[in-house]
Amino acid sequence: MDDPLLWSSTDQERALRVIARWYDLDFGSMTDDVEMILELASGSERVLELGVGSGRIAASLARAGHQVTGVDSSEAMLESGAQRLRESGVNVVRADIRCLKLDERFELVFFGLSTFQHLLRREDQLAALGSARAHLADEGRLVIDWTAPRPDDLDPAPRALQVEWMRASDDGRWVTKQAMQEFALVRDCGCALDRSSAVAWITYQYDAVGDSGSVHRSLARFPLRVNLSVGEMAGLLTQAGLRPVEWFGSWDLDQPGEGDRLIVVAVEAEGAA
Predict the structure, then answer these.
(1) Which regions of the chain are under pLDDT 70?
(2) Selection from 62, 63, 143, 70 nearest residue 104 by Cα
(3) What is the pLDDT of residue 210?
């Protein structure tokens, strides 16, 4: 499949089932983004994570004393973090974040680690922002964390798989992760780039080596929205009835341009319908 806009929920779940198997080995040691969300959640009793995944961030928030609800549509990701989520007391809701309806409002709502970039179409992005806004308490805040645009995001040149890490899994196997990014091509013309949508195909390859030396290889390929700028995000927020109040460029809350992340804090716009 070369057209990312034909990507279905079934395709997504198939890819996530591969990723979920190795998600904690890949991201479990990350703490910088967790510490940032903990800081931004200070003073917030009720917290909602849209795209909770395996609960890496949500569980830390719950253990810190927040009342946390985590929403995700992926059975595979929720299964991978089921014990963590249960033991930390996170309220888990399996649902589509684009059409979420909970009977509760939250002082903090957030999209963690590039979750927002899985929303490929503008209408999907606006629907998810609408869900976030609908669940904000009075004076509540929305936080979105995504990968800052990079010079090679729109590079049409073919790329080879690059080794990201080699680590020992819990069962004693050595696992190597390789990854690559390919800019999506227009469906009707395989040599032309669809720069307006700025969607890339991401490939993860995991090789797990057993005691006998046999290698088990698994592949996950999925589309991701890239090259999402501050200006475009500001426009999306405005259209969704939200107003950005702070921008950051890293998990250390540096200014935009001083890191490889973009983080926005937004509130409901005054007089928004």
Answers:
(1) 1, 185-197
(2) 70
(3) 86
Place of tokens 């195909």: 201
CA–chain centroid gap for 140, Å, is: 21
Angle between helical axes of 122-134 and 230-239 (0-180°, round to 10): 60
State whether the Cα torsion 253-258-260-264 is positive or negative. positive
Q: Please provide the size of the chain in residues.
A: 273
Ordered by start, the domain boundaries in the chain are: 31-148+228-268, 162-225
pLDDT tens readout for residues 153-203:
888 787 899 999 999 999 999 999 999 998 886 555 555 455 666 899 999
CATH 3.30.470.10 at 31-148+228-268, yes or no: no
Contacts of 209 (CB under 8 A, 6+ apart): 173, 174, 175, 176, 215
- Nearest to 50, CA basis, from 5, 123, 99: 99
Pairing state of beta strands 91-94 and 106-111? unpaired
Looking at residue 271, what is its pLDDT? 79
Quote the CA–CA distance of 50 and 124 in Å, as a whole number: 13
- Give the pLDDT score at 4: 85
